[in-house]
Amino acid sequence: MSKVKVGLVQMSCVKDKQANLDKAIVKVREAAAKGAQIVCLQELFTSLYFCDVEDYDNFDLAESIPGPSTDALSAVAKELGVVIIASLFEKRTEGLYHNTTAVLDADGSYLGKYRKMHIPDDPAFYEKFYFTPGDLGYKVFQTKFGKIGVLICWDQWYPEASRITALMGAEILFYPTAIGWATDQDEETNVDQYNAWQTIQRSHAVANGVPVVSVNRVGFEQDGAMKFWGGSFVTNPQGKLLYLASHDQEEVEVVELDLKQSDYFRKHWPFLRDRRIETYSPITKRFIDED
């Protein structure tokens, strides 16, 4: 299959977990009705972004994977014949939790999960309190509509993560994400932050010759202190924007990707061919100094 239609669901969330799941399912149906074959939901879409505080009660939001949410979404995937990428708060066992994305194939089967590798710890993003770093490695999933790579939010700043996933054969890189602006900061800072976020991900498309799909949440949370900036987007393998969402509206969009373009751009811009892999071992050091 050379062409595939990807659906992005950019939505706001409320405190009620079931209401968010129900809403996401409605929007998956909307994307499928528009022709989507692979639908990506945003990071931790079943809840508000709870990592703004360190609160032990928030662990009650976690669930097993596979579990209730993947069961519900599997039924929808099978009914609609679509692949669903679902970012969830995983309870692995007592006291061990991950930020995890499950992939459900178009026949409803559970293909597996990716556990977020890079975990931030910033003001209003206290994820290290909740999430254990992923231990499954980087992952690709062979779906009915192509081989996809899934990374999660903070992973999107790291070229190493996108490179490894692309080298594993990913034909598209998907990034469920949750990032926003503090509402007390100035507009210039807002613009600079968003541009940096978009630029680094578009560079992953260019460097690896694969399309990138980034799906962010939208709306005010944290008692109005945080505006999640939406701005979800799709690029082709050259980093060209094919779709750009607004910063303040819920959106369901479907974009057709031509997977044959990767071969074209990799032949004309042969970055993979020209890598000097024998020189890269220092990348595994924390910092290159004399000690």
TrEMBL record:
<feature type="domain" description="CN hydrolase">
    <location>
        <begin position="4"/>
        <end position="259"/>
    </location>
</feature>
<protein>
    <submittedName>
        <fullName>Carbon-nitrogen hydrolase</fullName>
    </submittedName>
</protein>
<dbReference type="InterPro" id="IPR003010">
    <property type="entry name" value="C-N_Hydrolase"/>
</dbReference>
<dbReference type="InterPro" id="IPR036526">
    <property type="entry name" value="C-N_Hydrolase_sf"/>
</dbReference>
<dbReference type="Pfam" id="PF00795">
    <property type="entry name" value="CN_hydrolase"/>
</dbReference>
<keyword id="KW-0378">Hydrolase</keyword>
<dbReference type="GO" id="GO:0016787">
    <property type="term" value="F:hydrolase activity"/>
</dbReference>
<dbReference type="InterPro" id="IPR050345">
    <property type="entry name" value="Aliph_Amidase/BUP"/>
</dbReference>
